[in-house]
Amino acid sequence: xxxxxxxxxxxxxxxxxxxxxxxxxxxxxxxxxxxxxxxxxxxxxxxxxxxxxxxxxxxxxxxxxxxxxxxxxxxxxxxxxxxxxxxxxxxxxxxxxxxxxxxxxxxxxxx
Length: 111
Known about the structure:
Elements: H1 13-24, E1 31-32, H2 33-39, H3 46-56, E2 67-68, H4 82-91, H5 104-107
Parallel strand pairs: 1-2
Helix pairs in contact: 2-3
């Protein structure tokens, strides 16, 4: 039985666009905050994407962990979500190098 998407009618158009983009990122791929902002039509709003993720990822069941920074690294602090995000990505087959960097050419989402 398909999972019903939670109500998003309260979101601003920007936030709704971010949610729609996040839902399209496939398993085993990552996107950057800036990439999502650009796809949402506001390329200079990477921080706003981060705020959107923080505010609604859990209640809207979004794949928040598939979003990393433009250096290919997890932005969350160690002992503050970093380990969870890394384990969720690894479970989907995303690989990290010795410096904990994801190869964006190999694992980056290119819609």
